[in-house]
Amino acid sequence: MLLTPVSAVKPPLAGYRKLSQLQKPYINGYLIRGLRQIPCMVSTVKFRDRLEHVGVQWGIRRNSYMVLPGLYAAGSPGRQSPVLVTANYKLSFDMLRRELAGLDVWLLVLDTTGVNVWCAAGKGSFGTAELLRKLQQTRLDELVDHRQLILPQLGAVGVSAPEVLRRSGWRIAWGPVRAADLKAFLAAGLQKTAGMSRVRFGLGDRLRVAPLEMVQAWPLPLAAVLAAALAAWLGGGRPWDYAWKTLLALGALWPLGSWLFPALLPVLPSRAFSVKGAVLGLLWALCMILLLQPGFWFALALILVSTSVTSFKAMNFTGATTFTSQTGAMLEVDKAIIPQLAGFAAAVVFAAIGFFAGFGV
Amino acid sequence: MEHAMKRWHYIRNGSSLKLDSERCIGCSACLQVCPHQVFGMQGRKAQILDRDACMECGACARNCPVQALQVQPGVGCVAAILIGKLRGTAPTCECGGSKGGACC
Predict the structure, then answer these.
(1) Mutant choice from A112, A327, A338 vs B, greatest count of B C-beta within 10 A
(2) How many domains does chain A fold into?
(3) Other Cβ atoms closer than 10 A to A358
């Protein structure tokens, strides 16, 4: 393997814009093959990368977290080395390069504008056309003697293996869903176990999407604060009493829908997320009624607002899951949206009755 | 590990997946790309074993060499459906911004 320092490399590469842009922390040199220089990626994921990953989970830089697309070398690949294909979302790229430590492989990174493989495949940017374009731009066929690509299985949503074979002569093997299974998959001669092909959604996965759920639900705490202020104002003699009780009962719906709902997803009853959420919201309302002992109308309002808001929030969690279908989601929306809106409206009316009729406390 | 793995199911009959057994040549491409192991082989034909596990990602239909599979692919995302309904369009992930499309 010939490594040269970044500054010594002069001619630009096919498939890249400017060589100066290639001076990235994840590249530590260049592999020389004939007249070509192929960037070598670093296999260690550093503290700074991990910090970025946490940030992305909270929505920071999430829509522009990308690496340069093109061809990379991991280790010192040769003419028989496997070729892996992935998207240019830096989080996926980092997971992948960590798993590739100690292996000699080529890595072809498609331009998905920083979107992960699965979502990009769904939208078509990780697709047949982009794969064929990158094969051509990087002249990969000059570097290897075989015509076998390994794509992540979830890329099959956008890439048609029969079409790629017909149009370019490259064969596609569908690799494992998770990068962590890559080594075992390569060692087994491109054979997958059943577990390698299945998408999971365990507690860890569900909690990993929770921070973003929380960030995206920012109107909830705002609404709780406004409701608490309104309650204090309307509550007359005991403003603080009204304020903290309202803030607790309604403000808690934020973490309830963002963290507790994903955590409890498999144990809540029904397949419909709206029903699961309604059950969780109802349980919370009952806890609060036992604790705060409000009057009849406020109790009714609390049950309705907690149930309808949590049901709506839960229904929106479908977008973060790995298994919900569009036909199913449409069935769910059609059935749930009217009861949710009606429940919320009724809650407002009942709370108003509680205040103005003085029946509340 | 394997036996403890949870199988996820969404709404009953919530999938548009169709398999034309007449056309199927038994290549098992659908088994290889399905993320929820909806398919199995029966003799030399693929068959749908667990329809309710289908999330309509469309990978099987795209990779079937003889077009034996049909599915209406789309995102199983209520937010996308609601945005679509409000705008009077098909479900869309684009939650604002001129470029959009990067939010799921």
Answers:
(1) A327
(2) 2
(3) 11
CB contact under 8 A, A271 and B9: yes
Read off the pLDDT band of A9 (50, 70, 90). very low
Pair A150, A218 in one domain: no
Q: Which residues of A touch B15 (CB under 8 A)?
A: 325, 327-328
Residues A177 and A211 reside in one and the same domain: no
A310 and A255 in one domain?
yes
**Range(s) of the domain holding residue A151:** 3-197
- Nearest-by-Cβ selection for A113 from B93, B102, B103: B102
Q: What is the pTM of this model?
A: 0.89
- Cβ partners under 8 Å of residue A33, min gap 6: A143
Nearest CA in chain A to B59: A157
What is the structure's pLDDT at A109? Answer: 97
Predicted pLDDT at A29: 84
Do residue A105 and residue A152 come from a single domain?
Answer: yes
Residue A361 falls inside a structural domain? no
Distance CA B58, CA B33 (A): 10
pLDDT on residue A356: 85
| B104, closest residue in chain A (CA to CA) | A119
Mark whether A122 and A223 lie in a shared domain: no
Q: Do A226 and A249 fall within a single domain?
A: yes
User: What is the phi/psi pair of residue A29, to 5°?
Assistant: 160, -170
What mean pLDDT is reported for chain B? 87
Give the domain range for residue B39. 7-87
Q: Is B30 touching A (CB cutoff 8 A)? A: no
Given B9, B35, B64, which is nearest A177 (Cβ)? B35
b/e map A167-178, b = 16+ CB within 10 Å = ebebebbbbbbb
State yes or no: pLDDT of A12 exceeds 50.
Answer: no
Among the partner-chain residues A156, A319, A323, the one whose CB lies closest to the CB of B104 is A319
pLDDT band at A259 (very low <50, low <70, confident <90, very high): very high
Alpha carbon A233 to chain centroid distance? 41
Residues of B in contact with A118 (CB under 8 A): 57
The ipTM is: 0.89
What is the average pLDDT score of chain A?
92
